[in-house]
Amino acid sequence: MNDVLTYKGFIGSVHFSAEDNVFFGKVEGINDLVTFEGDTVKKLKESFCYMIDEHIKDCETENIPVERSFKGSFNVRLTPDLHRRASIWAKMHGSTLNSFIKESIEKRLEFA
Length: 112
Prior knowledge:
By secondary structure, this protein is an alpha+beta fold. The chain is built from 3 helices and 5 strands, in the order βββββααα. The mean pLDDT is about 90. Strands 1, 2, 3, 4 and 5 form a 5-stranded antiparallel sheet that branches. Helix 2 (about 80-90) crosses helix 3. It has helices at about 40-60, 80-90, 95-110; strands at about 5, 10-15, 15, 20-30, 35-40. The chain has 2 domains: about 5-60, no CATH class; about 80-110. The chain starts with a strand and ends with a helix.
């Protein structure tokens, strides 16, 4: 995967500002704004890890659950026809729509 950093279950985007000559990013997939930057790749990675550790400490201090970048649930937008067809397929095969989508994604990623 390109242009991302990972640490302790968190994912950070990575960008570069030619104007400021700095790498920067933010933690993706959480409801808090956690940003980081560095003028070298090494400093960017160190800043990312430092900010994650600080975010975790802040959550613990404020007695707030630490929210990871991915919780395991997400909304999927489909056309009404595709939604109907997937629901019917799942029901006809003794499954749920959620299980059908999960299994479909797993099957697709087997070849990734």
